[in-house]
Design brief:
alpha+beta; 48% helix; 3 helices; 2 strands
């Protein structure tokens, strides 16, 4: 998904505006814990919308909408007879933390 998202950002010429996390490795830990896999990624420093003063958020809405349009375009078309909303909701839930941080 990150590769597809990066490609869409590049295709739209938005690499100066949006940084896409880069997957560096998936490492298996020697652990009895069922969560023994670690996904190592490199993120771009930025500012979380959730940490902005409310009066500044409106200034960033066009950028937020642009990012969401790129994200939705990356999700692709739903299977025939299925709703796009369910798959988009699942993808957004899966990648929201990576894209937007701990909002």
């Amino acid at each position: 998904m990150l590769i597809a998202l990066r490609a869409e950002v590049e295709r739209r010429g938005m690499t100066a505006r949006f940084g896409v996390p880069q997957s560096l490795a998936i490492v298996e830990l020697d652990s009895a814990d069922e969560r023994r896999w670690v996904h190592v990624s490199q993120r771009v420093a930025g500012q979380l919308v959730s940490e902005m003063p409310v009066e500044q958020v409106a200034d960033h809405l066009p950028h937020i909408v642009d990012l969401l349009s790129v994200f939705h375009a990356t999700g692709g078309a739903p299977p025939q007879g299925k709703s796009a909303w369910r798959s988009m909701k699942e993808l957004l839930k899966l990648w929201a933390r990576t894209l937007l941080g701990d909002c």
